[in-house]
Design brief:
The chain has a single domain, classed as MFS general substrate transporter like domains (Growth Hormone, Chain: A), CATH 1.20.1250. It is about 80% helix and about 0% strand. The N and C termini lie far apart (about 55 Å).
């Protein structure tokens, strides 16, 4: 009876927390619909324009490089102008760059545009994620951020289906991307400004992070290398094995759909058994699925989609599992600094992944992308097994970072630091 009452209370609390952020979640959904469509559209269009695999990989790497740079430098802008104006300004930039891709169909131009787009999306995601945290209570933050992750991945998956609306060689899809990004401004501008609460946080040096949780540090980096290769070159892989536009969008949606299906069960399991074992199991399962994708290039499409769903379902949540491992052994005052360090390691790996994955495709063939990912995931599995530790008592900790590598949990830390430094200057 007591557990039933607690469940009812949790459900009520969850409803109360969702109400003030419904418009914010709608903005995020529209934003990532556009971004999910644009990422795949550019790779397919680049393939049609005979861009080399190296150029396509570099193009995707530039996006993640811009995103990582933005995560480091943009908190100062948010402090200066506020969350709403930051989101609106960078949405305008992202909307313009989407259309400029049609005007300048050249590899060099697209490299620059992807860098700018990644930088702009970092600003928008930083603003929305910190705004979301401002509305979250310690008792419901995990639930709210899980919903945030589902909305994010769901929007990315649906964005793949929009690829079928018009031919990639046409301007129509680029106009749709621009419209979706512009539409994302409307809901968020209707909400009152609510900056994140100020929480005292300590900086965590990379050396300290590696010493405190070597598995989390190695996992964040290796997962970035492996999954970043897919983010950047997955549609190009599908294109090179002869899939048409509809099948390419289905393949990308299958990978993201697998993530939606398995993210929550993996997180639930990691709270009940050794996280190291869950990471080892997930990485081995994702590696096996990656090998399956590489071998299924001539197989029927349903088999390829199933292997892709397992690859994404087990592989994409690895970053959040590594973040949970790091948080297990750290005091609350160091959680955000840890999230920032892991984000940067993951960002570096994600930026390099498409370049290395593209090179693997040139050497081995299209399947080289997933064989490369499988090799990295197996290395991570070995590290997780080697550092197996006894299961610790479960303790609820409020983590102010969502479980997706596309979002950063470091903004609150940097905002507090910036505001303190401004206070000193004044």
């Amino acid at each position: 009876m007591r557990q039933a009452i607690e469940s009812i209370k949790a459900a009520c609390t969850r409803g109360l927390v969702l109400a003030p952020v419904a418009a914010l979640l709608l903005s995020v959904a529209l934003l990532l619909l556009g971004n999910g469509l644009l990422g795949t559209l550019l790779i397919v269009r680049a393939g049609q324009e005979d861009f080399s695999s190296g150029a396509i990989g570099a193009m995707m790497s530039f996006y993640f490089t811009g995103f990582t740079i933005g995560a480091l430098v943009l908190p100062r802008i948010i402090v200066s102008v506020g969350h709403v104006r930051t989101f609106a300004g960078f949405a305008a930039i992202a909307s313009m760059t989407a259309l400029l891709h049609v005007t300048f169909v050249e590899p060099i131009a697209w490299l620059a545009l992807r860098l700018i787009t990644g930088f702009a999306y970092a600003g928008m995601i930083l603003a929305t994620e910190s705004w979301l945290n401002a509305h979250a209570l310690p008792s419901t933050r995990g639930q709210l951020l899980s919903i945030f992750g589902v909305v994010s991945m769901g929007s990315w998956a649906i964005g793949q289906a929009l690829l079928n609306i018009a031919p990639p060689a046409d301007v129509t899809l680029f106009l749709i991307v621009s419209l979706l990004i512009s539409a994302a401004v409307v809901p968020i501008t209707l909400l009152p400004s609510h900056p994140p609460a100020q929480v005292a946080q300590e900086r965590v040096a990379f050396r300290d992070l590696v010493l405190a949780s070597p598995l989390a540090a190695a996992g964040a980096f290796l997962a970035g290398l492996a999954i970043g290769g897919f983010w950047g070159m997955g549609p190009n892989f599908a294109q090179k094995i002869g899939l048409d536009v509809g099948a390419i969008s289905a393949f990308m949606a299958a990978v993201l759909g697998g993530t939606l299906a398995l993210r929550w069960p993996l997180g639930w399991l990691s709270d009940r058994v050794s996280r190291n074992l869950v990471i080892a199991g997930a990485t081995l399962a994702s590696a096996a699925a990656a090998i399956g994708v590489a071998l299924a290039v001539e197989a029927p499409l349903p088999l390829l989609l199933a292997a892709g769903a397992l690859f994404g379902g087990f592989g994409i949540p690895i970053y959040s599992l590594c973040l949970a491992v790091a948080n297990d052994d750290l005091p609350a005052g160091r959680l955000l600094g840890t999230a920032r360090g892991l984000l940067l390691l993951n960002g570096i790996g994600t930026a390099a992944g498409p370049l290395i994955g593209g090179a693997a495709m040139n050497i081995v063939g299209p399947g080289g992308l997933f064989l490369y990912a499988a090799a990295l995931l197996i290395i991570l599995a070995v590290l997780a097994i080697a550092r197996r530790q006894p299961r610790r008592p479960i303790q609820a900790k409020a983590a102010r970072s969502p479980s997706t590598p596309m979002i950063t949990g470091s903004l609150d830390t940097m905002i507090c630091m910036e505001e303190r430094s401004q206070g000193v200057r004044h």
